[in-house]
Amino acid sequence: MKKSAWTGCLLVAVWGGIGGAACAADEKGKPQPSAKPSLTVTVAVPQAISLAQKISANGNLAAWQEAIVGAEANGLKITEVRVNVGDRVQRGDVLATLQADSLRAELAQAEGLLAEATASAQEAKAQADRARSLQQQGFFSAAQLSQALAAEASSVARVQSARAMVQLQNVRLSQTQVRAPDAGVISARQATVGSVVGAGAELFRLIRQGRIEWRAEVTAAEIGRIQVGAPVQIKAASGQLLQGKVRMVAPSVDAQTRNALVYVDLPAQTGSARAGMYAQGEIALGQSQALTVPQAAVVVRDGFSYVYTVGADQKVSQLKVQTGRQSAGRVEVTSGLKADASVVASGGAFLNHGDTVRVVDAPAAQAAPAAPATK
User: Is the pTM of this model over 0.70?
Assistant: First the structure.
């Protein structure tokens, strides 16, 4: 005689003892054992916390302003170079000197011409004074007086011309000393002793005041969120961490990349960071509320992020979510999750959609060790 299905179920219950699997009848009346939990999990409810809003960007470190120091005198030989790349200079420091022998000779010649013109002017003035006196006494005609006055005026003009020539030669002589237009750091040097330079030839490049800046590239959609003065944290390729502030957002967007530049001022002392280095950074935008879950609750599969929620029937549902900011072991969920959902806090990587789980309370924090007993 065939045993009934309920008798088999009863035997399973007896052998299983207390806590064994219970039986249920399927749609055909045959009893089936209930689903066994595949994992014991703890659940957490998403929390709304305040997180910092930041924009991550990449860019290059560059000189804040770079001055080109060139020669003003033409056709002179460099006799001395006093600085090299990396040297710090102050405004007005002599960087190089040019040969000045010919200019000194020309200055002496101009000073001689000035002295000659001055003497002639004094003689012409004396002649004009005598002509005025004699004309009043009737000994000089008006025409003779006019000639004397014209000679006096011409001599005064020659003195002014000679004085201007002396000033010009002094200026040319001063140009034989190439001076720093501002304080800063020498970033490039083309000057070599013995070379003959022309007017306007570049001799040095100077990073003004030694300041560098970070030129970050951001997308056009992010420009409107960035405010002048916003704090910025930067990590240079050398590993140096720098704190800066946004000085300016570029007024235009590059037509090729569709990116805009953000200019960030950096402190004068930048350690190992140098102009030309690549750097990564974050531009702070303030604080905002965010719905977050534990970082362990987010499972990444095939490039997408998922969380598992537990329903009233102890079955899990796989939800595809969009994640955002991270802070202190928590991840922001921007979409795909309700605020009152029960989320599997950890172990989601071992679950599949529809699995049955056993939910337990989260373990309490370990108690502090007991003090040793006193005798």
Answer: no
